[in-house]
């Protein structure tokens, strides 16, 4: 089968046709991937972020069909259309019992999961345990969610990461309330999903910030009242408030987190949903934390319970309240994955899906 392999950290994606995968074991399924999104996290991982090593088949935003089932799996069948999630919950740990499946205590490290992939006889890792840049992958049965027949695979794949991460940052982590003012920093797929989530939650003044004009235009089309550059003062867009009730940072650099904090009103909420670097510390004085009475909230995977949120998001898409189509620039063959990565790095692409 085909797979896009990163042989060395910092190197390109090498699309090979000689990859193989093992059979699914107990509690696992094999999925024929039909579409995958190239998330910024995949690009970062290919450069060694979060300690990623090589060789590896990356990709964690994908959808396809079950082609094989391991022993002990119930409720799933060969031929089922499924979404792949990169945090397969155990359903038993302290966090899962509290519906915090996104931080399942028993989630294995990527190197401990794996689809048993080999390329030209050499073992390769499965990035984030999913490896959706391969035609077929093996994952825990708890890591798939069945999909209805009406949603295209390229839209469904977005529901594996970008959409629930952004939507959940607004709806679950920030808990945006009707009439609240909301600022979203960064208008990639996650930021635009956060913006749509805030709009659906009933946000009042809704402002977006991004350096790229195309993404600012997209933010306006998806409900932002203003779309500004990073050099603009976002509070100037507010009518009668000293700062925003909620600021969602989908970039997560120390500079953007400080900007988010400064843009929030006293008593406001700052949500950091971007995947930041471990070597990029953010400083706050003890006095400002006390005096400003703001909440600083980390949002991992949008605080999403995927079994709950995916059907809700599909319903919102069906009824026209959540726009998935506008967030897919194009669908191209896996062979063009390096072109997709280049476009996303330059900001000329939002989310080009790859057909696997």
Describe the overall structure:
This protein has helices at residues 40-46, 94-97, 153-158, 162-173, 189-200, 213-221, 254-263, 286-292, 306-318, 337-346, and strands at 3-6, 13-16, 19-20, 28-37, 56-57, 62-69, 81-84, 117-119, 122-126, 136-140, 144-146, 182-185, 206-209, 226-228, 244-249, 264-272, 295-298, 330-333, 352-355. With 356 residues, it is of the alpha/beta class. The protein has two domains: 3-160 and 323-355, Quinone Oxidoreductase, Chain A, domain 1, CATH 3.90.180.10; 165-300, Rossmann fold (3-Layer(aba) Sandwich), CATH 3.40.50. Strands 4, 6, 7, 10, 11, 18 and 19 form a seven-stranded mixed β-sheet that branches. Helix 7 (254-263) links the parallel strand 15 (244-249) and strand 16 (264-272). Helix 4 packs across helix 5. The mean pLDDT is 95.
Short description:
This protein is α/β, with parallel strands linked by helices and 356 residues long.
Strand content: 15-25%
The global form is globular
CATH 4th-level superfamily of the largest domain:
Medium-chain alcohol dehydrogenases, catalytic domain
Query: What structural class do helix, strand and pairing data support?
Result: alpha/beta
Largest sheet entry:
7 strands, mixed
Cα-atom Rg, whole angstroms?
Answer: 20 Å
CATH architecture type of the largest domain: Alpha-Beta Complex
CATH class category name of the largest domain: Alpha Beta
Cα(first) to Cα(last) distance is 10 Å
Which helices and strands, and how do they pair?
Blueprint: E1 3-6, E2 13-16, E3 19-20, E4 28-37, H1 40-46, E5 56-57, E6 62-69, E7 81-84, H2 94-97, E8 117-119, E9 122-126, E10 136-140, E11 144-146, H3 153-158, H4 162-173, E12 182-185, H5 189-200, E13 206-209, H6 213-221, E14 226-228, E15 244-249, H7 254-263, E16 264-272, H8 286-292, E17 295-298, H9 306-318, E18 330-333, H10 337-346, E19 352-355
Parallel strand pairs: 5-9, 12-13, 12-15, 13-14, 15-16, 16-17, 18-19
Antiparallel strand pairs: 1-2, 1-5, 3-8, 4-6, 4-10, 4-19, 6-7, 7-11, 8-9
Helix pairs in contact: 4-5
